[in-house]
Amino acid sequence: MAFTSTKKALLAVGLVWLGVMFCLWFRDTVHLDRLLELTQRSQNNDSPPQSGKFEAKAFQMARFNKTKLEQDDVVHVCITSDENTLGGMVALINSIDQNTHHPIMFHLVVDQNSLTHIKTWLEGSRLHDIMYEVIAFQEEWVRGKVKVRGGRPELADPMNYARYYFPQLFPDLHGRIVFIDDDSIVQGDVYDLFKMTIKPDHWATFAEDCTGSAKRITMMQNHYADYIDFKNKHVQELGISPTECAFNTGVYVTDLDLWRKHNITEKLEKWLVLNTQEEVYGNEKGGGGSQPPMMLVFYKKYTPLDPSWNVRNLGIGRGNMFTKSFLQQAKLLHWSGRVKPWDRSAQHSYFWDKYFIKDRTEKFVPIRKS
To answer: Are 108 and 82 a contacting pair, CB within 8 Å?
Structure first.
């Protein structure tokens, strides 16, 4: 009898185990089928499904399965920020999430002090079910390599240079990424930016400052001489004209495999280090920071970006350069300059306020006129 009871008990345990395994298999099968259905919808340009936890979990599988069918439709967005600008990162993520009809994977880079803060902020908000990963930037990578001349010492912040290091920060990330400055909000579908055509021999896309429609939209003309010291012999060896049209590095699309192939990080670091030893840039109108090395490395190696994807200079502090109706039609608003959209004197800050999510810890609070 005891032996029979033991057999019955083992049989019962086995049936329970089989039942659990069947449920797990069935759940994963449903998620995978749903994932394929969502991917097929996107490829057929059908109406996108409503966002929610179920779809987010399905697309989370797409990230880790890494098959071509699943990966081609995921938009990879990289954003960098520190504790002083973290609210900008949150507002930017929210704007992209609300206006993009495709799965998005956010790759976030912050300073060490902000790791827990950004996770708490996102998980306690409507963004709790987005796909994202967050990593702290290793500031020692640029220690001793940055020298900022002129009147904007904040441009020496190590986080300004994190955009150079995405291949090292995310070694498993391949193919295209979109980078957007954290003092921006997106009003268009970032999938259109992600899929834009880049010429075969080019490494990235940037918005120009002084040609055609770009000149009308930016309201400014900037040339290489506004950023680079053309008396420097190393600059002269490149054969660049001082009147060559400048471009803005706050928004770009690139391919990380091409970035690795052409050693772009090493090329950027070369100019950083050289500028600490002799003046290559920094005393010109455009100042120093992370932009001049990118202008030197990507010279003749970029495809111009549709200027509506980087309507900038909202932070130069000169009052309202643009009408409200014009900005409503822009695909991306960028508060480049000293004044940020969370500052008291920011122009058109109501566009940014629409997407800002309150920080429950109150470590980040926008400054507004009383």
So the answer is: no
Would you state the pLDDT for residue 67?
A: 44
User: Residue 17: CB partners within 8 Å, gap ≥ 6?
Assistant: none
Sheet holding 204-208, edge to edge: 131-136, 104-110, 75-80, 176-180, 247-255, 204-208, 302-304
Query: Quick one: which of 71, 61, 297, 327 has its CA closest to 186?
Result: 327
How far is the C-alpha of 335 from the C-alpha of 348, rounded, in Å?
A: 9
Q: What pTM was computed for the model?
A: 0.81
Strand partners, 135: 109
For residue 228, list its beta bridge partners. Answer: 281
How many percent of the chain have pLDDT more than 70?
Answer: 76
Exposed/middle/buried for residue 46 (C-beta within 10 Å: 0-12, 13-18, 19+): exposed
Alpha-carbon torsion 308, 312, 286, 254, what sign? Answer: negative
Tens digit of each residue's pLDDT (9 = 90 or more) over 167-186? 999 999 999 999 999 999 99
CA-CA distance, 158 to 138, in Å (whole number)? Answer: 9
Written as one letter, the residue type at 252 is Y
Q: How far is CA 326 from CA 218, 285, 311, 321, in A?
A: 12, 27, 10, 10
- Whose structure tokens read 């970029």? 302
CA atoms within a 13 Å half-sphere pointing along the CA-CB vector of 124: 12
**Per-residue pLDDT tens digits for 36-75:** 343 343 334 333 333 333 333 334 433 334 344 355 679 9
Give residue 106's identity as a one-letter amino acid code: F
The yes-or-no verdict on residue 335 having pLDDT over 70 is yes
Q: Look up tokens 């019962």; give the residue.
A: 12
